[in-house]
Write a structure and sequence with these properties.
The complex is a heterotrimer. Chain B has 22 helices and 50 strands. By secondary structure, chain B is an alpha+beta fold. The longest helix of chain B has 18 residues. By secondary structure, chain C is mainly beta. The two termini of chain C are 23 Å apart. The model of chain C has no long low-confidence stretch (mean pLDDT 96). The chains are: A alpha/beta, B alpha+beta, C mainly beta. The interface between A and B is large, with 126 and 121 residues. Strand 16 of chain A pairs antiparallel with strand 31 of chain B.
């Protein structure tokens, strides 16, 4: 069923009885051309693009819980393309372009809102680093604009320009950056893949990866064995466990990142605003009115998907020094996601040592905005056995060789510092 | 309407006047805004989120979904304040929210007529055409219609605070279970904190008419509170909501200190966010009543049955003139009994056909409410009984679908509650939060007598676990009331039946979600927004689950629950972020010359946590560049003084100090002679440069290392790591002495002349050759002198114990003046070092190798060091890496800017043709031109070539010549001479 | 969260900074080969369960502490000084 305003009108007039499942719940078949392990944003996008771009529709997405239950439903919904390292730069640029047509492509309103992101800087050195990054973004073909303090005062009048500990020196405006309704991205991709014949199988946990003579044969699952010509791992937050089934040890350490939302408020923050002193702070307002914000990792390896007070308090302290009006807003809910932190802060999309087994992971806390391009590039790799040009930098061997490391933060091989 | 003879919490003899939506009302001392509004027969208090339906007060507590108001007190504007939790004070000003032009006539109430088109998830299916309309048209409309209260964009300056508390046991909730548990634990000699979110201890006892020990429950509670106050082991924290359970026994709690005051003391915190460290905790959070989904169950006047009698018993307020109760359980009948005692006739509609009246009131057994009417408040209900449909006039309907144990905090560590078929509720799963036990109604024990016994039992067990000996108290007598229940979740009929009042989620939405395959409870929640409003589903989640279970043909336990996450109740960001406003966000570190620099009008800029002078303006200088150029010329021509105390200083001692430094530095330090200084480069273990600095050998087993200002802490931790984790066999130890020594650079051709004016004795090349160091004396004060240079001039750094820093700075400046010198700031320091090609963290950006910096010769081939092996990875050594170069303009250029990228002349400007970037740039008065340092692909081999700098943001393009990074005095004669 | 410092007792996690897995104690020899170094620098078992990791008591005694911890529950089992070597 195609969604449209007319359809909403028609269904509204007839008791909304005609709406059908956004995706089916099929029983797993014995065999697929491609089995994708992980029904998160990236896995669903991979299935979608396998079907759409490569005509491969005999595909199953295996999800151990409910689709979209991982980080795609737990992030702060920011979509941007302000990376500067070769490899990242072209990839996120590609992703942003895919975002820009995603809703029409999917026939699903994911509320992609290009409201602009303003990244503040607070010293000469930070300005120079922001300039380097912004110039790299423009060299890639995307956009960035420098805002003076005077311009900022007009655009973001609620920031503290006078008393704050680290005075604001200026900001970088990325107009095409913004937000999207995170859950809807998973659902829209699931519906898009399902409509092209992909089987989305929930409550189906992969318990083993079958190989023979270095060639993948299929997977063992909580719902029985499934044969597959190709198996694609894309399980943020469980990468280590699933890769271990294939004997792999990854350059990944999993960490908790908290996120926070306030009660609903009338529109007061119109952009994504980010601030980089003593860690990170970023905030935007959802269409429902909640202020959605976050900061750095708690800092310790964790699979608990929840954090502790020190980071929650620190993030609120950053909010208070930056935009004191927020003090009267109330934190309604906090939650945590499991971030697979790679050792250079950038992801991996690559083949593995097993023929027909592919790996996609290590998205650190940048995975949400990457969803369309990650799926697009991973599907390309799976279908054609060679990398998509926009994702060719995400090699698994770059850590060993030191070639093409993408350390955007310059913090080195310590996983939790990216 | 006020009822005489009821309301133990309110003193109507002390009237309190307040305004709501600008209209003046009067309440009594002890009223909440909610009780005072009900006393004044104000029923419509706000509008719902999506359909802008008229809404009234539903509860008596923090779970209130509807009665959220904006409160203005002085300069402070607080949106989304719960009227049920807010005491009134004289001249309090409250306003309703989400209604325009007024709460009675809200234009967006038109949304309600469009509800067939605005069901769950409608927005995912439309608003997609044309593409650009989302940001321009649809989204702004949606945003304006959504949201509740509004933030005031100005900061009101109110004081908030954070604090720590420690105890053996935190008792959460001071209802009958909490009071009893706290008493038991306190008697056992344990340190107890008893926290309750209301101002008076007693919990539901304050809202009920039941007696304990033959006295009214609220009086028993007051007596218990008095006893607890008298115990020095128990600390009572009223108005304190425990908001979260965290690892290893930590809890968060929000205390509201002055919400009841019209003119609070501005020097005292209005709210305090507590971090409570505990050895154990008892959750006595009680239970919360839930409603029943039936058509149009959201009108003002429809309340929880327990709230209806609560307003009577505690506040002396009748919530309506004609009251009915609709329930599926015995407990709700108490509302009829209590109201009957106040002379109000109440009809109870009980869905159980075998329900029995507990007293003298009208009972309709086997009846169900199927509809209501009354646009701005309830006027009539329609119900069925024995197959007949009838209606009844009433302006207040108390509903009760049963009671949910408040399991919220037990879920904060991913615990999932367990379904209890008998209670028709979820109960806590034991062990969900390590160290926390649950007692009373929160554990599913509903009758008061059993609650008290359970609390004693649970608290005693915990006390014993904590090693205390327990005296078992004699339990008070209680009048136990019936607690029978037969689940009824939903009455299906014509019209919408609300689950989540605040987010406007109806049973139709949940059914639509299931129809569209959002069958997982988490999918349903996200698709419908059920439970995501300010009450976080406290009222409605279990009800919504039951509807989903029904729609999907599963039982409630299979359907499962969503997760409760902290905070339990919303917490002001000003409280969680207390102390962060303004300068409080980070420590401030001041050098000993700070006051003198400020007095000299130097703008102080942030350097990490430190403040450093940017430049020292002189009369007639109009811009920072004027001052900077003068200061550079002063250093190059005479002498300058600069406070460099912010550099990290680490004292390293021990027999193995030299061997240790050989491991952390690329170069060899074990062979450094006493009295000499050496420049060192430190790598991370992954082969990239961590930091640079100088290390001086003061004695055979004594070194002092300097680090950059930025990396001081990181380097200190790194040294400790290398020692403790990798080479604990080495006998060496470290102390950060950054704050212990004030250190000043004295640089310029007259540097030695200046020292001779300050230092006792003489400073000669013999004693202090370039890179020499040693002890000197200044007016009898022991000082250290290092002949090192970050300016390329003949220069020293002079260090004295910090207490002498201010006077030494003053002394140095006065002496410098006589030589034509003076102080210089960060701007000049930066120009001086760029002229010399010296690197800072602008160049050491975490991605460069020693070779990239042209410092490969500093990596000793003869020994191992941290980072050496990984630095040999092919990607770090092969051709094509970007290397440090100098860049100078070819012809006239407008400006060279750091952050610009470099391209080959004639190439398209694109990522794929990028050759490098500029890291540092300045105008050099010494060279008479702009200069820059940068990284360029294979740069060292390209000296003499030209490259094009492209800086898009300022629109500057310039042609630059690649040169050696040392622009000034390349052979270093000035430094050594 | 409280970290048990073997020297200072249980202290708030705010006093500590975190480095990573305790495998970092086993620095390979310079000539151990590329694979050993790659593994040391980058690869992690990354268990969802009991692990040993390294914490520095920065705002306390400056000890590096090996903490045995459960990453799935945040439960802490034991701790020891890193300078005492592998368990």
């Amino acid at each position: 069923m195609a969604f449209s305003a007319l359809r909403v009108l028609k269904e509204g007039l007839t008791g909304n009885s005609g709406w059908t499942p956004h995706w089916r719940d099929p029983a797993p078949k014995d065999e697929y051309d491609v089995v994708i392990i992980g029904g998160g944003g990236h896995g669903l996008a991979t299935a979608y693009y396998l079907a759409k771009d490569h005509g491969i529709t005999n595909v199953a997405v295996l999800e151990k819980g409910w689709i979209g239950g991982g980080n795609v439903g737990r992030n702060t919904t920011i979509v941007r393309a302000n990376y500067m390292m070769p490899g990242n730069s072209e990839f996120y640029s590609h992703s942003l372009k895919l975002w820009e047509g995603l809703e029409q492509d999917l026939n699903y309103n994911v509320m992609h809102s290009q409201r602009g992101q303003i990244t503040l800087f607070n010293s000469d050195g930070a300005r120079d680093a922001a300039m380097r990054r912004a110039n790299a973004v423009i060299n890639q073909g995307d956009d960035a604009e420098l805002l003076s303090v005077g311009q900022l005062k007009k655009t973001l009048p609620y920031l503290d320009y006078d008393q704050t500990r680290f005075p604001i020196y200026g900001g970088m405006l990325y107009r095409r950056a913004g937000t999207a309704r995170h859950d809807a991205v998973a659902w829209g991709l699931a519906r898009g893949a399902d409509r092209r014949g992909v089987d989305i199988i929930q409550n189906c946990e992969v318990t083993g990866i079958d190989t023979q003579g270095g060639v993948v044969q299929g997977v063992q699952t909580s719902r029985g064995p499934i044969r597959a010509k190709k198996v694609a791992i894309v399980v943020a937050g469980r990468s280590a466990q699933v890769a271990a089934m294939a004997g792999m040890r990854l350059p990944i350490e999993s960490h908790v990142l908290q996120a926070f939302v306030t009660e609903g408020l009338k529109p007061c923050i119109d952009h994504v605003v980010s601030y980089g002193m003593l860690g990170h702070f970023y905030i935007s307002q959802s269409d429902k009115g909640g202020l959605v914000f976050g900061g750095n990792l708690d800092g310790y390896a964790s699979y608990a998907a929840r954090g502790n007070l020190p980071m929650a308090e620190h993030v609120c302290e950053a909010a208070m020094t930056l935009m004191p009006m927020i003090g009267r807003a109330k934190m309604l809910r906090s939650w945590g996601g499991i971030m697979d932190m790679s050792s250079d802060g950038s992801p991996i999309i690559d083949k593995t040592h097993i023929d027909g087994l592919y790996f996609n992971g290590g998205w650190c806390y940048g995975g949400f905005k990457a969803i369309p391009a990650s799926g697009n590039c991973y599907a390309h790799l799976i279908a054609q056995d060679r990398p998509h040009p926009a994702g060719a930098g995400f090699r698994l061997d770059r850590f060993a060789t030191g070639r093409g490391l993408m350390d955007e933060e310059g913090t080195g091989s310590q996983h939790n510092l990216h | 309407m006020r009822v005489a003879g009821f309301g133990h919490a309110v003193d109507t003899a002390q009237p309190v006047s307040f305004t709501f939506d600008g209209k003046r009302f009067s309440g009594g001392q002890g009223d909440t805004l909610a009780s005072a509004l009900l006393a004044n027969d104000v029923r419509l208090v706000g509008r719902s989120f999506k359909y802008h339906r008229a809404r009234g007060i539903v509860t008596t507590g923090s779970e209130e979904p509807n009665a959220l108001v904006t409160l203005t007190r002085g300069a402070a504007v607080t949106p989304n304040t719960r009227a049920t939790m807010q005491p009134i004070y004289q001249d309090m000003a409250a306003n309703s929210q989400n209604a325009w032009p007024s709460r009675a006539f809200d234009l967006l109430a038109a949304n309600d007529l469009l509800s067939p088109f605005l069901g769950a998830g409608f927005y995912y299916k439309t608003f997609m055409w044309p593409q650009s309309f989302w940001e321009k048209v649809y989204e702004p409309l949606i945003r304006r219609a959504a949201g509740l209260g509004a933030l005031d964009p100005t900061y009101d300056g109110t004081r908030f605070e954070k604090a720590y508390a420690h105890c053996d046991v935190l008792v959460i909730g001071a209802g009958p279970a909490g009071l009893m548990a706290a008493w038991t634990l306190g008697q056992a000699g344990l340190d107890v904190i008893l926290a309750d979110e209301h101002d008076t201890l007693g919990g539901r006892l304050l809202l009920e008419s039941e007696t304990i020990n033959h006295t009214p429950g609220h009086i028993w509670a007051a007596e218990m509170a008095e006893k607890l106050h008298a115990m020095d082991t128990v600390r009572i924290m009223a108005n304190t909501t425990v908001t979260g359970a965290y690892d290893q026994g930590d809890f968060g709690a929000l205390q509201r200190n002055d919400a009841h005051l019209a003119n609070p003391d501005a020097t005292l915190p209005t709210e305090t966010f507590w971090r409570i460290a505990t050895r154990g905790a008892v959750l006595c959070a009680g239970a919360g009543e839930r409603h029943i989904a039936f058509p149009d169950n959201d009108r003002p006047g429809v309340m929880l049955a327990g709230a209806v009698r609560g307003y009577l018993n505690k506040y002396g307020v009748a919530a309506g003139a004609r009251v009915a109760v609709f329930a599926n359980n015995d407990n709700a009948h108490q509302t009829a009994l209590d109201l009957a005692a106040a002379g109000q006739a109440v009809t109870v509609l009980d869905s159980r056909s075998d329900a029995v009246a507990q007293g003298d009131y009208n009972l309709l057994a086997g009846a169900q409410v199927v509809g209501t009417s009354g646009r701005q408040g309830l006027r009539k209900i329609t119900f069925t009984q024995n197959g007949q449909t009838r209606s009844m006039a009433c302006d207040c309907l108390g509903i009760s679908g049963g009671w949910n144990p408040m399991v919220h905090l037990t879920c904060h560590m991913n615990g999932r509650p367990t379904w209890d078929e008998n209670l028709a509720s979820f109960v806590p799963t034991p062990g969900s939060v390590p160290g926390m036990v649950v007692a009373g109604s929160a554990a599913g024990v509903m009758a008061t007598g059993a609650v008290l016994a359970d609390a004693v039992q649970v608290a005693s067990d915990l006390a014993r676990d904590l090693g205390a000996s327990v005296q078992t108290p004699i339990l008070p007598s209680t009048e136990d009331r019936p607690t029978g229940i037969k689940p009824l979740w939903e009455v299906r009929g014509h019209g919408r039946a609300w689950l989540d009042f605040q987010n406007d989620v109806t049973t139709k939405d949940v059914r639509l979600a299931a129809q569209e395959n959002f069958r997982s409870v988490e999918h349903m929640k996200r698709y419908t927004t059920q439970g995501m409003a300010p009450d976080q589903g406290k009222l409605s989640n279990v009800l919504a689950l039951s509807v989903l279970a029904d729609a999907t043909g599963r039982g409630i336990p299979e359907t499962g629950t969503t997760t409760f996450r902290p905070p339990y109740a919303p917490v002001s960001i000003a409280a969680l972020g207390a102390g962060g406003h303004g300068k409080g966000f980070a420590p401030e570190r001041f050098t000993t010359s700070h006051a003198a620099s400020v007095a000299a009008n130097a703008p102080m800029i942030e350097a990490g946590f430190w403040y450093r002078p940017s430049y020292f303006p002189q009369p007639g200088e109009r811009t920072w560049r004027d001052s900077c150029d003068r200061e550079v010329a002063m250093v190059r021509g005479a002498v300058g003084v600069c406070d460099v105390s912010t550099l990290g200083k680490i004292d390293i001692q021990g027999p193995d100090a030299g061997a240790f430094l050989d491991l952390v530095y690329t170069g060899r330090f074990s062979t450094l002679k006493v009295g000499k200084v050496k420049y060192g480069l430190m790598l991370r273990e992954d082969g990239f440069v961590l930091d640079d600095g100088t290390t001086a050998r003061l004695g055979p087993q004594h070194f002092v290392m300097t680090t950059t200002t930025a990396a001081a802490g990181q380097v200190m931790r790194h040294l400790e790591f290398v020692h403790q984790c990798l080479r604990p066999d080495l006998d060496v130890s470290f102390a950060s002495v950054t704050e212990h020594w004030a250190q000043f650079a004295v640089a310029g051709p007259k540097a030695r002349n200046l020292l001779h004016l300050v230092v006792d004795g003489s400073v000669t090349d013999d004693i202090f050759p370039f890179m020499g160091c040693g002890a000197v004396s200044i007016g009898g004060v022991n000082a250290r002198l290092f002949r090192i240079s970050f300016s390329g001039e003949h220069a020293y750094e002079l260090a004295v114990p910090a207490r002498f820093g201010a006077s030494l700075f003053d002394h140095l400046l006065r002496a410098a003046e006589t030589l034509g010198g003076g102080p210089y700031g960060m701007e000049a320091l930066n120009v001086l070092r760029i002229e010399k090609g010296f690197i800072t963290h602008a160049e050491i950006d975490g991605r460069v190798t020693a070779d990239d910096l042209g410092l490969a010769r500093m990596v000793s081939g003869a020994k191992d060091c941290i980072g050496k092996t990984a630095a040999g990875r092919p990607g770090l050594v092969e051709d094509g890496r970007q290397q440090l170069v100098g860049l100078r303009p070819v012809g006239t250029v407008k400006k060279i800017l750091a952050g610009a990228h470099l391209f080959n002349p004639g190439d398209d400007v694109h990522r794929t043709t990028d050759q490098g970037h500029i890291t540092s740039a300045c105008y050099s008065p010494s060279v008479g031109s702009s200069l820059a340092l940068g990284f360029l692909k294979n740069g060292r081999a390209r000296v003499g070539e030209t490259v094009v700098m492209v800086e898009h943001l300022n629109g500057i393009t310039a042609t630059l010549e690649v040169c050696d990074p040392v622009f000034f005095d390349p052979d270093g004669g000035r430094m050594r001479g | 969260m409280k970290i048990p410092c073997p020297l200072c007792g249980a202290r708030d996690s705010r006093e500590f900074s975190y480095l990573g897995h305790a495998g970092l104690l086993d620095r390979p020899a310079p000539d151990a080969g590329d694979a050993a170094w790659d593994d040391y620098l980058h690869n992690r078992d990354n268990p969802a369960g009991v692990t040993e990791d390294l914490w520095s008591h920065d705002y306390g005694c400056a000890a590096w502490v090996v903490v045995t911890r459960n990453t799935a529950t945040h439960g802490i089992l034991s701790s020891r000084l890193a300078k005492d070597g592998a368990a």
